[in-house]
Amino acid sequence: MKNILLPLWAFRYFILSSIRTEFRAKFVRSKLGGIWMILHPLAMVLVYALILSQLMTAKMPEVSTQYAYPIYILSGVIGWTLFSEILGRCLTIFIDNGNLLKKISFPKLALPLIVIGSALVNFVLFFITMFVVFGYLGHLPYHALTWLPLLVLITVALATGIGLLFGVLNVFMRDIGQFINVALQFWFWLTPIVYMLTIVPEKYHWLMMMNPMTGVVMGYHNVLLYDTAPDFQVLMYPSLFALISLLLAMIFLKKQVKKWQMYYE
Q1: Which of 52, 155, 183, 217 is 20 to 30 Å apart from 240, CA to CA?
Q2: Structural domain for 218, as ranges
Q3: How far apart are CA 238 and CA 134, in angstroms?
Q4: Which one is predicted more confidently, 168 or 33?
């Protein structure tokens, strides 16, 4: 662990400056800047809310506000957006930075840390905007917000572990990246973000719970919609899944690094 952390600490300024540069580069020629990053998920939520709001709100009698369904979607989308952004970028992290890897010697784990840092900046901006929307809708869940960092940690670990595992393979087999991007679209619909788990036949609940993002998204719903602590029994499986995927990613990356360096020589 010490051999991993010390090199990363030595390159902390490189990591921070890369996050800052990356964020600025995204919107350098855009007048609205980071607002576009927030408008995209909000537009998706608006579309679903306009089409399904009346139908789905009727299935949420435990939530008193008439805007229960838009709040439900926002609560899940914010977690999914963080997850999909990190996973998607980790898939191509070594390909996109091939030239940098050939020219500069630095710890390889600095690259996923830059991705995570950039995604967390986006998450914070989205969260602030979401809370403003919640306030406008008369819904301010603040009692259970202390549990949000735990959910973010699990989300980041899960996305990073899975993303790095397939990201290393994607250097040698580019079809993997395309396959995972397609799989993410199905993964979204297999996660109770747009719909409630209660509308799925009970005999399929165990299958839904095999998806680690189901428990995580349910945790976001508990904190941001119901203003209660997440169900820790439900979070045990995604937490374990995240830990195992991270450990496998580290082992796999260490074993593949020589082949990977040869590939870029």
Answers
A1: 183
A2: 70-264
A3: 27
A4: 168
